[in-house]
């Protein structure tokens, strides 16, 4: 164990610090200095002894190819590694590794675990693996790099963001972060307070920082950035509070902003930023810009390098109630939409709106996936999504043409189907609670029939593995709504009162669906044992999924459960990688209420695991 690898040198204002693994064993004086420095908004800098310690720990690099994350390796998605959020630009969450397969998965055991020295709401991070190092994020935008063979810490970086009670950023749904991006010598992370930070891959030290959101506003960043055509792409969140959504691209080297594309129009007394915004404004009424309109890009993205199109999903309206947001009605473009953008300038190429005139927090920010499928005798390049609204969409990814849309949740009461002529949902008569003046229970709830949890694709089964859920919620228009900064501004009443009793849910609360995107239908399902995590598909014909406090392996063809281990409540998304010919499966899980947040990594013939049940 190295000793004093951390030194404190006050520098310019920035709430950031790099801490070596032994920094948890700081002397009381050092703790005092750190705490002092944090309060003074000072920054910690590591002296060369830190770099020396790192050099000794840095895992042996195997091949030259593994050392490089660039446009080529991102495009080819190096099989043994996991270089971007969905492993590839198509966001398939599919690993071509097959050492671990349906016949031997029962021998899966622990390789190592690592406890994140930071607690928070829960973990949603998909780790990345490159050159023998695994990178991920924990609570409050905490970033870390571990030796992927051993789980030994290489570095961690804590941006020391205060929580909301202490003046930190407003977050609707927990202090979560979905992970980092890698490119060349840098690790990129979006912070809860809206900063985008580039860290040195080897040392974890800050190379540049840029504020991607207006300071002092209700934006936050929870999504993983992506590197597309050499630029770093990042969105944001905050529509519950009331913000105007956008997505931005930055130069990976310098952090300079390359472009910004808004998803909803701003104040029409000012010039619109683009033709798309000018056209979108025709679909809004009233003074929507006061609250912001919403449409944040907080999660799903994908990239097609052949078409050179960047796809992003946009979020719900702010406020939720359309009658409080756009009182004359309208589709309110581009809320709840899949957008195809030119990654060179962010200009809109096509759009498809899954939920026109959103009234229900039915975001289309859910994970996007690009597939090449044969549909009715034709080879189609498609983009698929299972957004919150409960319909599984298959679109032509060149044009945005709707190919099919079918319900994947067991009981949708807001719409009975999607009209293939118009591409619009067939809303049920009770769904528009503002127009009827009647509060109503609807499914899905604002939590959605599918949320942030990645689905995965297996090319040999031709199936998508979708972590879905059944839920419902009460919606009623809030009368006399007025915007107030810093609080939820949904304009919708959801709480108790004189509302009718909750209708019984149809179907399980959570489930894994094996979904055929060609026939757009369910092939098999496995019920959840608790809250869903994300999924991973492998060439071993396995699908791994988080569920409750477990990591579960299923036969991808039949759904048969083959293996399970207890990893901690609140599972994120598993990934697969290979080192020295051994395949590893790694997942983050754990909440404050159920042991430490932890990374657990498995190999064949590893040590004993705790099977299902506590
Ligand atoms: Ca929302």
Our measurement of the CA-to-CA distance between the termini, rounded to an integer number of angstroms, reads: 34 Å
Query: What Rg, in angstroms, do the CA atoms define?
Result: 23 Å
Q: Which percent bin holds the helix content? A: under 10%
Q: Overall 3D geometry?
A: globular
| Unreliable sequence segments | 1-51, 61-66
State the helix count: 7
Strand sequence of the main sheet, in spatial order?
Answer: 1-7-6-5-4
The main pleated sheet reads as: 5 strands, antiparallel
- Coarse structural class: mainly beta
Give the strand tally. Answer: 41
Whole-number average pLDDT? 89
Bound compounds, each kind once, are: calcium ion
User: Strand portion, in percent?
Assistant: 35-45%
Name a few traits of the molecule.
614 residues; mainly beta; five-stranded antiparallel beta sheet; five-stranded mixed beta sheet; 7 helices; 41 strands; globular; disordered N terminus; binds calcium ion
Description:
This protein has 7 helices and 41 strands. With 614 residues, it is mainly β. The chain has a 5-stranded antiparallel beta sheet, with no helix packed on it. A 5-stranded mixed beta sheet has the order 2-35-36-37-38, with no helix packed on it. Mean pLDDT is 89; it is low at 1-51 and 61-66. The chain binds calcium ion. Residues 239-240, 315-316, 361, 363 line the site of calcium ion (CA). Residues 239-240, 315-316, 361, 363 line the site of calcium ion.
């Amino acid at each position: 164990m190295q000793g004093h690898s951390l030194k404190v040198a006050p520098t310019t204002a920035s709430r950031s610090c790099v801490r070596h693994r032994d920094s948890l064993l700081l002397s009381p004086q050092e703790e005092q200095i750190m705490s002092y420095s944090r309060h003074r908004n000072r920054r910690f800098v590591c002296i060369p002894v830190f770099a020396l310690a790192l050099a000794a720990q840095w895992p042996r690099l195997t091949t030259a190819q593994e050392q490089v994350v660039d446009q080529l390796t991102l495009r080819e998605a190096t099989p043994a590694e996991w270089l971007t959020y969905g492993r590839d630009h198509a966001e398939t969450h599919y690993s071509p590794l097959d050492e671990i397969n349906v016949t031997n998965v029962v021998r899966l055991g622990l390789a190592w675990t690592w406890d994140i020295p930071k607690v928070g709401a829960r973990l949603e991070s998909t780790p990345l693996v490159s050159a023998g190092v695994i990178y991920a994020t924990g609570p409050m935008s905490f970033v870390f790099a571990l030796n992927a063979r051993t789980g030994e810490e290489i570095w961690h970086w804590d941006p020391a963001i205060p929580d909301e009670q202490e003046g930190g950023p407003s977050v609707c749904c927990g202090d979560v972060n979905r992970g980092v991006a890698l490119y060349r010598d840098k690790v990129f992370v979006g912070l809860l307070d809206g900063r985008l930070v580039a860290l040195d891959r080897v040392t974890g030290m800050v190379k540049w920082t840029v504020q991607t959101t207006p300071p002092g506003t209700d934006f936050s960043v929870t999504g993983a950035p992506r590197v597309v055509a050499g630029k770093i792409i990042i969105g944001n969140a905050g529509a519950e509070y009331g913000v105007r959504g956008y997505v931005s691209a930055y130069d990976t080297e310098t952090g300079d902003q390359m472009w910004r594309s808004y998803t909803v129009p701003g104040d029409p007394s000012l010039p619109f930023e683009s033709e798309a915004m000018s056209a979108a404004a025709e679909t809004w009424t009233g003074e929507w810009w006061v609250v912001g309109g919403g449409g944040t890009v907080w999660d799903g993205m994908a990239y097609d390098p052949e078409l050179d199109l960047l796809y992003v999903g946009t979020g719900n309206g702010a406020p939720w109630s359309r009658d409080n947001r756009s009182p004359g009605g309208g589709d309110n473009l581009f809320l709840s939409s899949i957008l195809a953008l030119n990654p060179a300038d962010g200009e809109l190429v096509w759009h498809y709106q899954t939920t026109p005139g959103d009234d229900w927090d039915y975001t289309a920010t859910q994970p996007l996936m690009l597939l090449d499928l044969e549909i009715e005798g034709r080879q189609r390049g498609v983009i698929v999504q299972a957004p919150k609204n409960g319909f599984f969409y298959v679109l032509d990814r060149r044009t945005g043409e709707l190919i099919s849309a079918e319900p994947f949740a067991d009981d949708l009461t807001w719409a009975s189907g999607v009209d293939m002529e118009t591409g619009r949902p067939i809303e049920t008569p009770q769904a528009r609670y503002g127009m009827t003046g009647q509060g109503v229970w609807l499914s899905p709830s604002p939590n959605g029939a599918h949320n942030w949890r990645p689905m995965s694709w297996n090319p040999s089964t031709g199936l998508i593995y979708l972590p879905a859920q059944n839920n419902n919620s009460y919606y009623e228009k809030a009368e006399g709504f007025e915007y107030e900064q810093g609080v939820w501004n949904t304009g919708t009443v959801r709480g108790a009162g004189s509302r009718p009793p909750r209708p019984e849910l149809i179907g399980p609360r959570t489930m894994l669906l094996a979904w055929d995107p060609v026939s757009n239908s369910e092939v098999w399902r496995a019920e959840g044992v608790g809250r869903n995590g994300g999924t991973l598909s492998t060439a071993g014909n396995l699908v791994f999924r988080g569920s409750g406090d477990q990591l579960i392996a299923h036969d991808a063809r039949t759904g048969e459960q083959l293996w399970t281990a207890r990893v901690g409540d609140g599972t994120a998304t598993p990934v697969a990688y290979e080192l020295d010919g051994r395949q590893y499966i790694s997942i983050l899980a754990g909440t404050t209420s159920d042991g430490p947040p932890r990374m657990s990594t498995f190999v064949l013939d590893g040590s004993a695991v705790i099977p299902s049940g506590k």
